[in-house]
Amino acid sequence: MSVGTATDQVAPPQAPPRAGLTDRARSERRLAYMLVAPAVIVMVAVAAYPIINAFVLSLQRSDLRFPAKTKFIGLANYGHVLGSSVWWSDFAHTVIITVISVSIELTLGMLLALAMHRTIFVRGLTRAIGLIPYGIVTVVAAFSWLYAWQAASGWIPGLLGLKTDPTTTTLGSYAIILIAEIWKNTPFMALLLLGGLALVPDELQEAARVDGASTWQRFWRITIPLMKPAILVALLFRTLDAFRIFDVIFIVNQGANNTESVSILGYNTLLDRLNLGLGSAVSVLIFVCVVIIAFVYIRLFGAAVPGSENL
Amino acid sequence: MKHSQREISGWTAAIIAVVVLSLIPVLWIISLSFKDPGTIGDGNFFPTKWTWANYSGIFKQSIFTDALRNSIGIAAIATVIAVVLASFAAYAIARLKFPGKRVILGASLAIAMFPPISIVGPLYNLWREIGLYDTWPGLILPYMTFALPLSIYTLSAFFREIPWELEQAAQVDGATPFQAFTRVIAPLAAPGVFTTAIIVFIFCWNDFVFAISLTSTPAAQTVPAAIASFPGASQFTEPIGSIAAAAVVVTIPMVLLVLLFQRRIVSGLTAGAVKG
């Protein structure tokens, strides 16, 4: 923020719009478009075009096993998906996983961020080790936790004295998926929060302490309110990411024991059953859910989209 | 500053908790990778009988060595291209005046939030038609696309902190905006660019959805996709030892990257996401 204003001061006075556009401003503008163009073209070609294509496919009966039968059928695919119990139960699984994992990640992430920010010794080492899960491939994290829990190989069932193999029960499967997901993503959450923590002025904390506020009061009355923008951005990012959960479930049990998420459903419909029409309808619905989540965070909770305040 | 005994023991406990929780799954997968096939099901945390067999086994299988080559090549190429293109765009966004800036940032943020599964179907279809299915470019393109928004955000945050007076001084001395960019600003921007490259590489290295959807053979399959399809000794046994060894091989470089560049990763992710 302060950086933004500094830049504004240094920047040359703005040329009067349109009519008085100087040669210099015009060439600056041309350079800007040339610099931005390659990135924009790639993003449009590889992200925007396929999502439009997904929408078009979702309005067709399109099955790669029967390509001759492709035909425009309007919203029938959506009717089929939204009318099926599979979509709604998968939606419920996804919401359960998202809500539980993001809330625990927020709590643990905050603790980790405080530890990284405030620790009085070996700060570099604490930060580095705390970050390790961020660098681990999600698939590897999922395998590690799966093998730790499953009766055929793991150390956890023995430790907890479990009688049944946790991978065979719904509760056990959720536990494995959630723990793997939370372990992998808490450091990222902590990093996003750490940025917000750095913006809380030490003098304010000190002043409150002199006035007799306890650690607990300072945390809730000073740290949290000042960190609100960072918390909202972190929650927004992690919620969107958790909602599209795929890797961990795919590795742990491919959606068995009632853990199938909407992304797994989309993948199975598209790439296992090769039904592009129905699969695209699922894809578009997932996209709509993500847009709604982003809208709720940005409009209702007032999450500031990163970068927007600097323009 | 003096710290009380209580503070010191509190922080010691907190640090031990962080270290233990972060490292246990890593140590466990390492330990599994050294377990002898006969003892892999014994449930002990540490191996009772150590062996290198799992490692020598996977390096003899082309499914793994090819995947390793694909992972390194694809992630490296995607990272280089994404970071170069994003540097151009971020420079323009941080520095130049032009209409449409907000649209570009908004659109790239939208892509960053995009569920990959939503475009996997059309890409699968399109790639098969134009011959990109199961090829390196077939993965490099989607990785670049999702890496670009991340890089543009991180880089524009870094670029805003560069002392721009130097650029103006160069321009006063007669440099064109392009010369000012390549001669003055680029060297100053190098640390930010390097940091962004690390973050993007970790992102590409981690991907699984695109890898299992858009590849099918060792021609382009990356390690996460390959280990998910490792064949077991028989239909009913899981290749736990091989998977663990392969997992360790892809994990070690990432752990080293994180340990060596912790400070940069922290500054990169916090700059991109929060300071904005």
Give a nutshell description of this structure:
The complex is a heterodimer of chains A (311) and B (276). Chain A is mainly α.
Protein described:
With about 300 residues, chain A is mostly helical. Chain A has one domain: Orthogonal Bundle (MetI-like fold). Helices cover about 70% and strands about 0% of the residues of chain A. In chain A, strands 1-2 form a two-stranded antiparallel sheet. The radius of gyration of chain A is 25 Å and the shape is globular. Chain A starts with a helix and ends in an 11-residue tail after the last helix. The relative contact order of chain B is 0.14. In chain B, helix 3 packs parallel to helix 6, helix 4 crosses helix 6 and helix 8 crosses helix 12. Chain B folds into two domains: about 50 residues, no CATH class; about 220 residues, MetI-like fold (Orthogonal Bundle). The model of chain B has no long low-confidence stretch (mean pLDDT about 85). Chain B is mainly α and about 280 residues long. The two termini of chain B are about 35 Å apart. Chains A and B meet through helix 1, helix 2, helix 4, helix 5 and helix 6 of A and helix 1, helix 3, helix 4, helix 5 and helix 6 of B.
From the structure above, extract its key features:
heterodimer; A: about 300 residues; MetI-like fold; B: about 280 residues; mainly alpha; 2 domains; about 0% strand; globular
CATH H-level superfamily of the largest domain in chain B: MetI-like
Fraction of helical residues of chain B: over 70%
Helix percent of chain A reads over 70%
Whole-number average pLDDT of chain B?
Answer: 87
Low-confidence stretches of chain A: 1-13
Which architecture of the largest domain in chain B would the CATH scheme give at its second level?
Answer: Orthogonal Bundle
> Quick check: average pLDDT of chain A?
86
Q: What low-confidence regions of chain B span 5 or more consecutive residues with pLDDT below 50? A: none
Strands across the major sheet of chain A, in which order?
1-2
- Under CATH at level 1, the class of the largest domain in chain B stands as Mainly Alpha
Give the number of domains of chain A: 1
CATH topology of the largest domain in chain B, by name, is MetI-like fold
Biggest interface, which chains?
A-B, 112 and 109 residues
Task: Find the count of extended strands of chain B (DSSP E, 2+ residues).
Answer: 0
For the largest beta-sheet of chain B, the strand count, sense and barrel status come to: none
Instruction: Tell me what portion of residues of chain A adopts beta-strand conformation.
Output: under 5%
* Coarse shape of chain B: globular
Assembly state (oligomeric) = heterodimer
SSE class of chain A: mainly alpha
